Each structure stands twice: as C-alpha cells, then as structure tokens.
Amino acid sequence: MTPMPDPAPADPNTTHPLLQTIGLTKRYGDFLANDKIDLEVVPREIHALLGENGAGKSTLVKTIYGLVQPSAGELRWQGAPIRLSGPAEARSLGIGMVFQHFSLFDNLTVAENVALGLDGKEPLKAITARLADVARDYGLPLDPKREVWQLSVGERQRIEIVRALMQNPKFLILDEPTAVLTPQEADQLFVVLERLKAEGRAILYISHKLDEVKRLCDTATILRGGKKVATCNPKRETAASLARMMVGTEIKEVMPPAERRTTVPRLVVNDLTLAPAELHGVRLQNISFELKGGEILGIAGVAGNGQDELFAALSGERLVKEPGTIILDGLACGNRSITERRKMGAAFVPEERLGHGTAPRMRLSENALLTGHAASAMVRHGFIDAAATLRTVDLTTETFDVRKAKRDPEAASLSGGNLQKFVVGREILRKPAVLVVNQPTWGVDAGAAAIIRQALIDLASAGAAVLVTSQDLDELVEISDRIAVMFHGHLSEPLPRAEATRERLGLLMGGANLDRKEAPHAAGA
Amino acid sequence: MQLVLEKRAERSRTIALVSPLIAIGLTLITMSILFAVLGKNPIMALGVYFIAPLTDGYSLQEIAVKATPLVMIAIGLSLCYLANAWNIGAEGQFLMGAVAGSWIAVNTQGTDAGHWVLPAMLVAGAVAGALYALIPALCRVKFGASEILTSLMLVYVADLVLDYLVRGPWRDPAGFNFPTTAEFDPVATVPVLIEGGRLHLGSIIALVVVAGAFVLLDRTIKGFEIRVVGVAPRAARFGGFNANQLVLLTFAVSGALAGLAGIIEVAGPIGHLQPGISPGYGFTAIIVAFLGRLNPVGILIAGLFLALTFIGGEQAQITMKIPLDVTKVFQGILLFYVLACDSLILYRFKLVFTSRQVQSGAG
Ligand SMILES: Nc1ncnc2c1ncn2[C@@H]1O[C@H](COP(=O)(O)OP(=O)(O)OP(=O)(O)O)[C@@H](O)[C@H]1O
Ligand SMILES: [Mg+2]
C-alpha cells in the first residue's frame, strides 16, 4: 500500500458540493421520515440542520453516515453517486460523525476507547501518540491514559470529537453536540469548529439552540415534517424567523409564573447522606431542603455532581435506612420502594430517557405501564388493561404533541425530543402531588420546550411540589421559584429567583461558598 | 479480505421469524454430511428421522408423549431466560420432582389409599422441583454465585440421590435386584387418554401450561415484569420491579414445571422409578426454549419437533443401525445453529476488502 496524500484540506477555491443528497427519502412503513430531501454542503462551511422534534434530522444524517439505508434518492460525494453499505464505508470516504449519545466504555481509558472506534489495525501505542497530537493540535486537552468514568460530560464529548478527527474527515456531522454542554464548554467547541472550517472541512450541525446557530453557521437547511422547507443564511434571520420556518406558525411564549400560593411542605429531605452505589459515583453529603406545594425548586450544577444519586434516593430506586430522611406529604418514606412512593402521589422523570425512563425495545403502551402500573388504573387483579395503557399513550401524544410514525411504536423508534415529551408527559398527566424531574427539556425543540415548561408551571399552580434538575440555567431561571446548586454531593442553600443571577449561580457551580465570600465583605462594610 | 459482523441499524423482524428455520436447514445439511461420513445414505437417513415417524399413529402418539416433558420444562426455562436468569439445571429439578412424587407412590403402595394419591404426587413433584431450583437462585441472590454453574452441578446431585434410592431403600424386593421401585398402583398412575394407547393426561397438562404461560406473558403485570427485567434492567428498576425477586420467582416456577414433568413421566409412560428416566429432557428443553424463541406457542412447536428427533433416532437405530447418540449430536448442532442464526437478527455479515488507506494525522 502506498501512503495517500493527505486528503483533508480541499482546494481553497472549490465551491463544488462535497456532499449532496438528491431526493433522499426514508420510509418507515407508511411513514415518511425523510421526504425527497435535497441538501448541498460545500467545503469550508458550517451547515446547520434545523427542525422540530421528529422533523427527520437524525434520520437524514444517519443515512449520510451509512447507518440507515435510504428508501429512494441519491447520495453524491464530490459529485459522484455513492451507495453506503455501512458507517465503515462512510468513514473510509472521509465522513465522520459525533452522536448525541456517546458510545464510550466507562472502565477503559481514553486511548482504548478511541482505538475501539477506529477501523484500522493500528497498535494502541501509535494511537495514543496520535491522539495526544490531535488533541494538542486542536486545543482539546485530553489525557489518553485516564479512564472515562473520571471525565465530565464535556470531556467525554471531546473524546468523540477527537476520535472523529483522527479519521481526518472532510465532512463532520454533529448531532446536537451542545445539548449536554455548559456554556463554557460549548464556547470551546465553537472555536474548534471554526478551526475545522478554516482547514477546508465541511460541518453539518444539528441543534435546537437558534442563537448558537446564528452565531456559528453559514447556511441553514430547515426540515419540517420530513420535507425540506427552506435553505437560508441564518445570520440574516432572527431566531424568531428561523423558528417560524421550522414550525410554520408562531411559538407560544411561556406564561410567566403567576403569583402562586405555596401550601404545606410536600417533599422534605433531612440531612441525606448516602455513599455511592457505584464504583465511580458521588457521595451525597448532608442534603436538606423543603419543598412546598405550589412551588418549583430548581437544582443547577454541572452534570456528575451528585444529581443522579439524589434522583435515585428521592425516587426510591435506592433506599436509605433512616425513613425520616425523605418525607413525602408528611410520611417518612426513605425506606419505601419507588412503587410505594408513586402510590403516595410522587412521580419521577430520570435524565436518561432511553434505557432508564423507557425500555427502548418496548412499545409506548408498555412504557406507559412501566410507571403507570403503580398508581394508575392500568392493572386489575394482576391483569393488564391494555386499553387503559393505550389511552395514556393517546392522551400524552395529544397533550404534548408527540410525533411518531404510528399509534403505538417502540420507544427507540421515536426521535429523541419526541421520546422526551412522552416520558415527561406520561408523568405530568398523572397529576402527581410531587414531581421530581431531571433535564425536562433535554433535546426538545423550542416549541415543545415551551409546552413542557408551561405544564410544569401549571402543575405547581395546581398545588404540586416540583423539583427540577437542569443544566440549562435559563430554563431554571424561567420556571423556578428558588434555585439551589449541587456541587460535589453538597446542595447549596436555595436562592430566591430574584437573587439567582447567572454570576452567583456560576460561582456556586464552581464550588465557591457564597456565605463565606460575603462574610468579610460584610465585616468590611 | 475479511468477514466481519456489522451491527444492523434496525432489527430485522423477518429474520427473527425465519432464523429458526435457517438453523434447522443448516442442521439438516450438516447431518447429511455426517450420515454420509458414517456410510449411510443421507436421504434415507433423514427420511427415517423426520418423515417415517409422522406416518403411523403409534409414532405420532409417541411424539406427543416425548414432547410433553420437553414443552413443560421449556416453558419454565423460557420464563427464566426472559428474566435474564440462567437455569441450566432443569434436568436435576425434573429428577427431584420424580423422586418426591415417587415417595408418595412408594409409601402408599399396596394400601387402599384412594384417588388423592396421584394429585398429591403431582403437587409433591412440583414443590420439590421448585425447592430444588431455589437453591441456585438463592445462591445467586444472596451470594452472587453464578446460577449457571450451581444449577448445573445440582443435576449430578439429583442423579445420585435417585440412584441411591432405587438401589437402596426403595428397591422392589420382587425385582430381581434390578435398581427400580415396584410398578406404581393404579391410583398412583397418570391415566392414558385413549384406551390401550400411550397418550396420557400429562399432554393435556402441558397444553394448559402453554396457554397459562401465554396469558402470563401477554396479559399480566408479572409477565410484563419478567419481560422488562430481561431487556432493560435499569428501566425495570425504575418501574419498581425487583430483579432478585424475579430470579427467585422464575426459578421456582421453572423448577416446579420441571418437577411436575418429572413425576408425570415416572407415573405415566414409565410407571415406576428407576435410573435413566430422562434421556436428557432437561437439557434438550434448553434447545426447545431457544428454538421456540422463548415464546409459548413457538415452544410447543419446537417441542414437537425435538420429540420427533428422539423418535426418529430410535427408529434409525433399529432400521439403519445409526447410533442413538447421533440424536444428541443432532440436538447439539441445532442449538449451535439457533444461537448463531440469532446473531443475524442484530448483526449482518459483511466482506471487508482491506484496501484501507493509510491515515495520516488530521490537520
Ligand atoms: N426505526 C424507526 N421506525 C419507525 N419510525 C422511525 C424510526 N426512526 C425514526 N422514525 C420516525 O421518524 C421521524 C423522524 O425521526 P428523527 O429521529 O430523524 O427526528 P429528529 O429530527 O432527529 O428529531 P429530534 O430533534 O427529536 O432528535 C420520527 O417521527 C420517528 O418517529
Ligand atoms: Mg434527533
């Protein structure tokens, strides 16, 4: 084999499309996920792919990456028609992809994970060296020898990006890369993307964050209901005009929380300390708070600071010995099962919707049963009332605008955002007394996010206590009455919304102790 | 050039249905080669194995008789496997059920005990099988011991217990020193369905078990729990389903069904307790469970098919002098192909030509 010349940087003057789709169509049964889509991406371009949940964005990029076989239409690579038999072939052409959900092994090192994702038979040592080079070169610091469990979400995504870059792609696809990043991490990512663009590569970028798209992207293709509706320059559009093209109508604003009357405490946590169940988990330390009916408490914090552990303890997936540590509606229930807590009127939405919130390979009606069996009338004398489970699916579909190919599909076939609407809607519709929800609008489009936030506010207005954990500070500020920050397993004193400025929250998220910071200040005054 | 397995983007439903058929086809081809090597005419041999038994009434009854324990055991095993609990020791639970039921038969022998004897024997067989299965299940839940190993090892313990009993305390004094109990009394015998035939009540019980399993899995919350725990353990925990409890439950149920099959076999077609009451039903049932796709109706069909191989094997031994062990070889090859073909549901084969370009560092 002769070494090929470095294929990446294209002739700076080319404007010939690098990748084209012509009439690309993907059919699932009678449902058209992609309907005759024409797309053109040229080198030296960051091309946004926009659309509501279920518009067909992921389907389109999976087709380009060879993961999904198109039902009709054509793919062209540098002008020549191609047929991809799988991702390996796409990679060999120079197409790279970073998925929204990472595929990393926690107990392997960064280098080992990268090696598993590469096609060649390169020895680990060479990979490690090359990895360090690429990482340094692009300013994406990564220690090849660290094990993945020690890394933050942002660092994990860096692995995926570096892995894609090591294939030296001419064309890089990123599916909602910033959904899980902090604003700082997102900024770092944008610097890298600008650099890649300057090197003559093309990038296809999926995001629901329109301001980000306006800032970064040169072109935007907008999908609606599987069809392409427009191609435009996002810099010349406003976020509202982009949204209008995506939805076809105006988006509703979330009504500012009307003055709500708070009632009695419905969820009380008393000095909760809990050793991690998993090897690499976070220890919860002396967590105490009180949440009243009619109130929304937001929990901010960088992922991996104990939010998952707190969720497990509150939901009853993990039991605590001392019953009085967690009190639901006046009843000590630290040692009660999740089913008993549901019967007491609590409802839970975990962060991970596939595999945790739902069984991916089971139908939506079965997934309605998964949490509904406890407290809803879906089971009689041990027998499942199939009609009742379907009614829940229909009601959720209607209320939360869940778009899907048929009435009762497998959970895994729903688009990410639509599944999110389902898992949140499923719980809200049960009208819980206490709702604990993690990342309620993760990967959800602007319109649907507004629906979900409004539903949370309405639930609180009706007297429920709502605990929202989110990485999205804007979201928390928009809907919460008070906001606390989680850091290294500690929960800060909640700040009233008026005092919860971005700066103060940011400091708390970095581990600063505001009280102590303010003490000398006060003394000096 | 190399052959690689590549993950399919979507699960192939068609392949899920035809994969058992592909497995059977491949098994038949392999068997033909094996017959040819043994110097037998493959076409004739396959005819004797798979066609001849279907052509006379006696063999058809015999197929149903052999399918009865296979189906009952496999239904139980399928519940375990769906719940991700690996009971490999159904053979031992079968033997223990046979022993426990026989204990009642032996102790009421020659008394004028009434019609309660057979029902009591069936209950005893089921309970003993369940208790015996709970040993490995408890070891897994309490100590994390691999239930695969412990359940398998307990098969040999059961085998020796049975052997000891029929050679020692329970041996028929009038039995010319053969290691066997006396022939059971009529009240301790499973009645036949057709006068003078071999088909017995156990086959009806097996059908009831199939129907019960279908309702359990399809219509009840317990069945739902079993299915969720297997395919999505984390979601199951979120749903409030306790995986350990389900390990105990499915092991107990499958042990009970194996034990019931054991006592029915002894009190039915055999009529007394002796060593070698099972030609490996407990192990063959594993094949039945997988060939039937862990689905009750599929298991019924698969059970009849594997029963056919037992009958065909006996006939091939008589008419063509093909060793009986060939049947076991056949069943082993079949399981191998079934599991291999199952990979086709999730993966596809692909030829990769290693003309890969040398990659240089990015940038
Ligand atoms: N395997 C499948 N079987 C059936 N329908 C499918 C399958 N995969 C996707 N779909 C349907 O195709 C539509 C488009 O899905 P896709 O994942 O492309 O949406 P998306 O634009 O990426 O949305 P999101 O923003 O929520 O990620 C969805 O309505 C989904 O239900
Ligand atoms: Mg998507």
UniProtKB/TrEMBL annotation, chain B:
InterPro entries: ABC_transp_permease (IPR001851). CDD domains: TM_PBP1_transp_TpRbsC_like (cd06580). The chain crosses the membrane at residues 15-37, 43-60, 67-86, 116-135, 147-166, 199-217, 246-268, 280-308, 329-349. It is found in: Cell membrane. Keywords: Cell membrane, Membrane, Transmembrane, Transmembrane helix. It comes from the Bacteria. It is a multi-pass membrane protein. This is ABC transporter permease.
